[in-house]
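Hello support,

Our group uses your service weekly, and this is the first time we've seen a run hang past the timeout. The protein is Extracellular solute-binding protein. I'm not sure whether the cause is the sequence or the server load. Input pasted verbatim:
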Amino acid sequence: MKSLRLMIAAVCLCALGLLSTPAAAETKEIVLWHAYRAEEKTALEKVIAQFNAANAAKGIKVTTLAVPYDAYADKISATVPRGKGPDLFIFAQDRLGGWIEAGNTVEPIDFYLDDALRKRFIPTTMEAMTYRGTVYGLPLNYKVITLIYNKKLVPTPPKTSGELVTIAKKLTDKKAGRFGLAYSYGDFYYHAALMNGFGGGVFGPGTTPTINSPQNVKSVEQMMKWAESIMPAEPSTALITSLFNEGKAGMVFSGPWFLGEIAKGVDYGLAPLPTLDEAGGKPMRPWMTVEGVYVSAPSKNKDAAFEVARFLTSDEASKILALEGRQSPANQAVYSDAKISADAQLKAFREQVETAVPMPNVPEMTMVWSPATSAMNAILKKASTPKAALDVAQKAVAKDVAGLRKK
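Update from on-call engineer: The timeout came from a worker crash unrelated to the input. Re-ran successfully.
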């Protein structure tokens, strides 16, 4: 009877919180969305497993969800503001401004940043994560186009546009279907390397559209000269890959996504895009897309989520993402690692970043693509001169931008 009374008393004390009993720490589950596949996905999951093991005692556990890329951006826009999305998500900076303006999507993280963390990253990748003076994400990796060449056909890659044309003309025989250079020159994303190299761009101060600037017109005129002399007409992605793998294209302008398409028997190299003799020796400046790790504004575990983001961009994690995931980390220190510095692919893309331009992350950027694409198509079909086509695009973008600002 006495033992029964003691048990009842203990239960009462526990209910009142007066008797301490061992209890497991409450687990904070952090949900991370990404769109990675294959080796990128495997490498990310390895890093997350390391984080979970190191933080088990703190009660923090990360779970990942791979979202199909085609639906990814729309899914973020639809779910995150309503608190139905993840605590963290990985995405390129091109949608950042739009999500910030929409509200309740991306959490500003200046509060968490100190000088040491800011200096962890390649400066331009931090620029890509910054909108109106505020930082909204930690840069994870970047993608940029560079020169990819067939070593058998091009033993020494060109350093200038003059050298590029000289080499390409020797390799080009349009009747035989052979070309010195092949890239998606009708795609505005790829054309940006020339546009920026000539000192052009899509926006001036205050996101004022500058689609038809003299520099942009000159860049398109230069592209057409190359198209008519050393490149295939209407190059599709499949055609470019086929030409390169068959030894019928000496050089290609493309990014890391192209490397996986190169046939095993092709001995290839990577080098920086050439400087432009026609622009006073200035370098070609491709757009750089930077994938950042963003804390969702509605997350109930923001502090823990940021710790995950910090870990994902650490030296240790960046090395795994680079060597096993074949990504180009935004972390600066990792390029001093012996294995990474000896990796020709990683070294080449890191070198190209020195002249790359972060793609604009403003909401107005979404209004550029359709008019710019229409302009490029009209120019390639010779239905319009470069100046006239870019004038039309300028009017369309300016009208849409003005409409956005009235909202």
